[in-house]
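Dear colleague,

Thank you for sharing your sequence with our group. We've completed the structure prediction you requested, and as agreed, I am returning the results in plain text so they can be pasted directly into your records. Please verify that the sequence below matches your submission; if there's any discrepancy, let me know and we will rerun it promptly.
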Amino acid sequence: MRRLVVRPSLSRRILRAAGSLSAVALAALPLGVPLRAQSSQLGPAPAPITDADYAARRDSLLAHIDSGVIIAPGAREPVEHYPRFRQHPSFRYLTGFLEPDATLILVKRGGAVTSMIFIEPPAPRAEFYTGTRVRYDELGRRLGMVARSKDDVNRVLDSLAATHLPYYFVSDAESAEFVTNDSLTFGRALARRLGAAHPGLDIRDATPIVEAFRARKSAAEVALIKYAADISGLGHRAAMDALAPNMNEYEIQALMEYTFRRNGADRPAYASIVGSGPNSTTLHYDRDNRVMRAGEVLVMDVAAEYQGYAADVTRTLPVSGKFTSDQRVIYQIVRDAQAAGERQVKPGVPAKQEVDSIVAVVAAGLARLGLVDSARATIEAPPGFCRGGTRCLQMSLFLPHGPGHGLGLDVHDPAQWYTPPLQFGVGDVFTIEPGIYIRPGILDILPDTPGNRAYMARVRPLLERYANIGVRIEDNYVVTPAGLERLTLAPREINEIEGIMKGKRKK
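Please find the predicted structure tokens below.
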């Protein structure tokens, strides 16, 4: 067996970041000794979503249909060993049930409602490996419905087809982003089978109804997201304390994810993005295995999930502890853009108003640096790069993504401003995350057209100057009747970050 070797310098930095015991005492601990939790740095844990809350959600869904059969499949048992099972968001939203291979069926007919949940039957041998499964009577009492074996799903649905009620399916796609193109999930396959077995069966989509409920977060949901954000902030502060040149990206990833679990998080909310130097310009880089060099920046898009609810936090740090003058200028443009977006958000404001404000600040900043000819200047791009054609703003070479998204049970959760009238509403929880990414080879993707040549010739020297500077700043927010509240409080101003990295915490 290979011996695990921990570099003393890294060990001291990580232990200092942990902050629970003295560095000397921690350094004396053998590997594998658990550290005391940082619960004192967090407020009281919020109350979980209750069974009564889940029942009210199901009642709201039933109120949206006159009569019909609602089918909401849960996630299937994974066919790989890693990662571990995670329930699909919409099924969790309706039931709170966290075991695999379950299906919820609600039948409404003539004002009467029958509720059933189908689950894995007891399997004593399998339970040696996976733990004791919930029993039918126990789950039935908890949810206030009939619990049956999953093997009965097809028989029950085939029988209900004789009622000629419409069938409403709630998608069990992995994420709301994938619902439109879903063709392989258990739910989609079940709908196809029922349609083939019962010609004329009226099959409808209930997913938009459930997503509309999920888009408006309750106070209990906001509290869980805020707690996930607080835990995430501890991870980001630990990274600020520990980061130094010649560390590997995965060391920061490990420290942050350790901090999450140590403080009660379920898991990282998504694949951790820890990208330095050239990797800082790749939006979803998650290999996290490069040695970081002095003078580079590090983008850390890393956050925790707590009781199923995700935070989504990004900070950009100078590997050496102090931003260079060019990094500082780009960072401040991004931070100013984020602040501009924040100022626009309140109930009833069109989402486009926030987007336009962010884009205007980024475009003006890039124009000042000479990276674009003007805020509205365009380029001819290859097919698929621009949205809706082959001509788009020059600034899209440096800010190719949207400025934010909904947040909740899914890291890209539904939001009220996604659907008409496309306005922010009370209970919206979402991110604001502008960025600028200077990829040295970005001009190589452009067609050699007369319109592009002059721009490319002028900008190439500037790309060499700013090469491999990627900056993203991402925070989480909730819309309240009074306006906008920021949920993520990890340091984000240049002086705060540099002060912490020097060991001079700002109070």
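Summary note from our side: Residues 219-242 form the longest helix (24 residues).

Kind regards,
the structure core
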